[in-house]
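Below is how a single chain appears once it has passed through the pipeline. First comes the sequence as given, then the structure the pipeline wrote out for it. We keep one example in the README because the format questions we get most often are answered faster by looking than by reading.
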Amino acid sequence: MSSPSGSRSARIQEAEKAMGLRTTADGGPSTRVLALSARAEGVLNAHPRTRDLTASLPRTDTSPLRIALLGPYSAGKSTLIAALLRLPAAEVEKIVDAAPKTLEETPYPWNGVTLVDLPGTLSGDDSHLASAERGVRGADALMIVTTSELPGEAETEAIARALDADGFADRSVVVVNKMNAENSDRKVILDEIRKRLGPFADRVPIVPTDARDFLDAANDLELTDTEREFLASRSGIDALTTELRRLVAPGVNGLRPRAQAYELLRVLADAEGMWHLRGEDLDAVRTAEKVEASLSLAREGVLKALERESEVVAARIRTEGGRIADSVSEKKGTVPTGIATDVTARLIDSHTDFDINFSSATRAAYDALTAEYGEVVPEPEEWVNNVNPPEANPATPAKSPLEEAVKKAAEQAAKQGAGKLSEWLRKIASDKEQAAAVVDWLIKNKVGQKLLDSGGKVTNGAKKFKPWGKVNATNKVSSWAGKAQWAPVVMGPALDAVSIIKDQSNRMAVEKHRAEIRDHFANVALQQRDGLVDAGEEHLRGWIADVEHALGDLTGPGGQIGATREAALKEIGSLRDAANRLIDQAAG
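Resulting structure:
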């Protein structure tokens, strides 16, 4: 059994909770909003631009609910407060006389909550408007005050903003004051007010009042009690009192989390506004974005050429494979020497054409960047085609009828020089000493010099090398050999079919071998295409990285600002989405 003191403490806590004076710590709405607010504080504190906004973030608050009175100057807000407080005549005059001078919000305790009188919004004084907006941000509920003269366009916009963007649609009451003025048609006025509330007309109660009539009746000693009661009931103040009590009935735990969630949204919106760049920061970010756009355009152009030209190489390999397969004679089982030689040359040409076109696309991208940013843009390194040659022969089934013919074909191909050519090219491609020997031979004549010095980076035109010239020339010769090497290797399976097949029964094997040749060339086509794409992308990445480094003075400051801004806005957006989910859950 609990102790009396413990029981009393529990009763007090329950009473406070029922009265809306305690916040929950059990993961309820208030706890979740404050957790988001704590996250927001970390995000806003991370940068000087938004650091000052942390002071406006929602905090743990168990103070009485605040109902702010929002409306234009002379709408009778102060008079309404005097009527709700049932003030005597002397006190009424003090409040009313002070109203035109009010520059800050003025609080008045009422029935366990706080009525907050805000400066008039349409007084023509911007400081009044700013103070009123601050008061709205600190309110839990809103009393929107207008008059029987009907709100104008600016006032209607202010009402709509409070109900919609500020989130007070379910936490407000519209008070139409001065309803007993001469020539006021109550029905017409209220219908017009509902129209101006638009989609919120069914969600926001409208209470017609005349606070001055109520105060006059309450303080006129010459009136009878019956007359006083009649005038008071006609003033609408009692109806307003009932509506306000209904509005605040959920208490602090019911209203404040929603108010704080909307306040958090407003702070986050202010934070996003702080990231609207201006001046030097804006110029720096625009410069960085311009450079990035230029690099993206250059990159895209080269990649398109790479995709296109690598597919052309693959198509040409498949086509030549078809030619070889079709040329195998059923009668003799041979590939005509002329076709084999022509196909080999065309395969080599396909890589040569790729190199020319890919290098041309890269050069065009370089020229475009140079035209835009000058000589600071580094020239791309010469394209070196290092795509590995494919395996020479596809696997043949064990105990194939062509097994002996294949062996003889390989021997005959070696005698014809195909094997020797491939071996020689392989040595030059893989052994830099062999490649250097070729360079030494080429440098001795003008034709060789011209071949080596196509990029102007190798010789000085007098049979002598520039610094690093021989290394560049050796790499170039090695690359040429590697490019030329793969074509004879690809031809291996085709040359395997040069043996004479005499038996009619072997003609089916010839067809099978033709199919193997086509499959082999199709696989080679895919390998070469993918290999060229991978090598080309790596070459492009290296050059683009060099360009980015060279243009770092242009992109560095703006890039850092832009990245920081993007990260901050992403965090702010995440917080905003979470706050909106809380609001939607509360509404549901």
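The longest helix spans residues 279-327.

See the next section for the split statistics.
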